[in-house]
UniProtKB/TrEMBL annotation:
It holds the Pfam family NusB. The gene is nusB. One of its GO terms (cellular component) is cytosol. It comes from Pseudaminobacter soli. Coiled coil: none annotated. InterPro entries: NusB-like_sf (IPR035926), NusB_fam (IPR011605), NusB_RsmB_TIM44 (IPR006027). This is Transcription antitermination protein NusB. Keywords: RNA-binding, Transcription, Transcription antitermination, Transcription regulation. Belongs to the NusB family. The lineage of its organism: Bacteria, Pseudomonadati, Pseudomonadota, Alphaproteobacteria, Hyphomicrobiales.
Length: 166
């Protein structure tokens, strides 16, 4: 049986195990932000009940558990350095505090990877987090994620996907 598709909305690419881990990390960061859950509690919950499991009729994709843990712990441990980098990349009329929790989680995970995972190409990180943004948003947010991660990649790695330097 196939699921009907909504042709008016572009469908994001299917995630590989690292992509699924990134999505799960964003969801876990969101949950930590909204519910005030702790790192150990949320990591255990996701690994026991979500990664590769069926939840409320939805099947979570199999994810790389080490990648999931690394992103989640990395964002939490480095948030004091990650958040200022995001703030610098945002425009003055869009402070970090104005962004909703999902968008903050996407940007924190993406910026953490750009800063700490130099073994992963910039283009991979940016496109994966833009795809995650497309899974949650239709309008401007994926463009914002792309712009912020591009600005950050130029600043922390000296490379970006867009044209021109910022």
């Amino acid at each position: 049986m196939t699921e009907p598709t909504d042709n008016s909305r572009p469908q994001p690419r299917q995630a590989n195990k690292r992509g699924a881990a990134r999505l799960a990390a964003v969801q876990a960061l969101y949950q930590m932000d909204v519910a005030g859950s702790g790192l150990l509690e949320i990591t255990a919950e996701y690994e026991a009940f979500r990664l590769g499991k069926e939840v409320d009729g939805d099947l979570y994709r199999e994810a790389d558990p080490q990648w999931f843990r690394a992103i989640l712990a990395g964002v939490v441990e480095n948030q004091k350095t990650v958040d200022p980098v995001i703030r610098q990349a945002l425009t003055d009329d869009w402070p970090l505090s104005r962004l909703d929790s999902t968008l903050r989680a996407i940007l924190r995970a993406g910026v953490y990877e750009l800063m700490q995972r130099t073994d992963v190409p910039v283009a991979v990180i940016v496109s994966e987090y833009v795809d995650i943004a497309k899974a949650f948003y239709v309008e401007e947010e994926p463009k914002l994620v792309n712009a912020v991660l591009d600005r950050v990649s130029r600043r922390v790695r000296g490379e970006g996907r867009g044209k021109g330097a910022s």
